[in-house]
Write a structure and sequence with these properties.
The protein is of the alpha/beta class and 411 residues long. The protein is built from four helices and 23 strands. The strands form four sheets. Strands 1, 4, 7, 8, 11, 14, 17, 19, 21 and 23 form a ten-stranded parallel sheet that branches. The chain has an eight-stranded parallel sheet with strand order 5-2-22-20-18-15-12-9, with no helix packed on it. Strands 10-13-16 form a three-stranded parallel sheet, with no helix packed on it.
Length: 411
Amino acid sequence: MLPTPNHLLQTLSKLITIALFVALLSAAIVPLFDAVAAPLFAISPDLGAATSYSVLGGQTVTNTGLTTMPGDLGVSPGSAVTGFPPGIVGPPGAIHAGDAQAAAAQSDNAAAFTFLDQTCDTTYPGVKDLVGETLVPGTYCADAFRLSGTLSLSGSGVWIFKSASDLIVSGAATVVGGDPCNVWWREVSSATLGANTALIGNILASTSISLETGARLNGRALAQTGSVTLDSNTITGPICALQATNTPVPSATNTPVPGATNTPVPSATNTPLPGATNTPVPGATNTPLPGATNTPVPGATNTPVPGATNTPVPGVTNTPLPEATSTSVPGATNTPLPEATSTPMPEATSTPVPGATSTLVPSEGKIPPPTPASLPPSGGAPSSPWTAVLIALGIGVMALGLGVGARRRVR
């Protein structure tokens, strides 16, 4: 029975899934093998107080002939230094025989020796002669190292040569490439540079170091417990700076940056800004504005509403009260009111009130009647109360008639 199309698609999908899984697994595993095989990065130690020394011995330093070195020469815990002169130390170097400076340098020398015991990238069986080798930075280990010809150091970095016993340099030995400050020879016992050989790097030996006649060293010779023997040698190694691999960057310390202290910013205090006090704004006091005082307006008792315009009510202003000319009040003294004969009302004059804004509306139809107190006093006897009532009634009737007439005209 032939497989169905669906079955073929399912099988193909499974195969593709398995292939992708294998590819991803390979991509993850292969770099691990490469990392195992890749050389580790060697790290230079910090020589500390021993940094300024070209030669450091444990018991003695002995010289024959004209040996020169730029750095310090020291002995500790011993104190014997012979052959200087004719040997020359410095400048800027000086001799430290059994003093505190030499002791500090020897202590840091021992610490650096321990630090150089790093994991081997390459291990040679037995005794290894490095002649003809071209080596990249890394840590190389052997029971003992020999150099009878040219060794080439390729690239930039740190080279560490760890010997379980000794180092012997002989014949036409020389080293090409590399930085003397980053090449290290760690010898558990001793190191010997044969006559007229050349080597670069720092020799750290547990016991002794010997430079035979005419041997040249571009670096340092630092022995912990034994002696250093010199014979007309040239030691030219630079005074190497501390290695950046082990030296923390000064700016990365915990020292606070000046100006970054906890001093609060002056402008962030709680001092209120000038002008933000509670002093009231001038002009915002409770002093009433001019013209807004409580001084009564003269004649305001009979004055129309303030704000009235100068337009008088038609038929009202300057009109004498005709009914008051000859009408006598029943039961009264029949004394006419001389002040009401033909005198217009003082308060109904055309004098505008200062600051008035409103206009009397003619359609209101009513004129406020004058109070008895507003009438000027008569020259005769006091009027009867009925007189005031009749006058008010007459004025009211006349005002009503005027209002009705005004409404008809408006319509």
